[in-house]
Amino acid sequence: MENGEYATWATLFENHCQAYMVHDHLTSAVDTTLSTAEKALWSRLDALVRQWIYSTISTDLLHTILEPKQTAKDAWERLEGLFQDNKHSRAVYVGAGELKKLAGQLSNVGAPVTNQRLVLQLISGLNESYDGIATILQQSNPLPHFYEARSRLILEETRKSKHATAAGTALYSASSSSDQRSDNSSNSGGGRNSSRKNNN
């Protein structure tokens, strides 16, 4: 799902939730003042909205956002944050998604991966161009949550991409200006030679 597709999906999903009067499950946590029966109803409806989310996104996205004891609001906000962060980036998103999928598989066989190990593994998979942000993350005490670390890496990747684009544009402009000066110089020299011949 790309950013444009996500915007369409999100609009249609919100409309669907509004039609079934469960849109508040995307924006609010359970009200602690509800009675036991009302909380049970809220929990059942929240599970329904979560299932709608899980069943209408790709498997890769599902593995990326899925967490135990997740509410519909949690899933909705993580999905929203993923696409907001991902406007200019794909590499970190893909790598983080694969790592999260592997952690989920280990958890399913009784070997859960802690947030600390997940974040450190994410950092260790980075190349040397990310040494700066990797050091900052490693020295954080406590380590940030996996999703926060992923977001900060995506922001760094976006910054690098913008700098690379700006450098390429500047190089092209400088090259074009140099070519233009060279052409002007050649034309000027040709004009002077022609003038001397005519005078002779």
SSE arrangement:
Blueprint: H1 3-19, H2 36-55, H3 59-65, H4 72-85, H5 91-108, H6 115-124, H7 131-138, H8 146-199
Helix pairs in contact: 2-4, 3-5, 4-8, 5-8
Task: Please supply descriptive tags for the structure shown above.
single chain, 200 residues, mainly alpha, 74% helix
Can you give a write-up of this model?
By secondary structure, the chain is mostly helical. The protein has two domains: 1-87, no CATH class; 88-169. The chain is 74% helix and 0% strand. It has eight helices and no strands. The chain has helices at 3-19, 36-55, 59-65, 72-85, 91-108, 115-124, 131-138, 146-199. Helix 4 (72-85) packs parallel to helix 8 (146-199) and helix 5 (91-108) runs antiparallel to helix 8 (146-199). The protein is globular, with a radius of gyration of 27 Å. The relative contact order is 0.07.
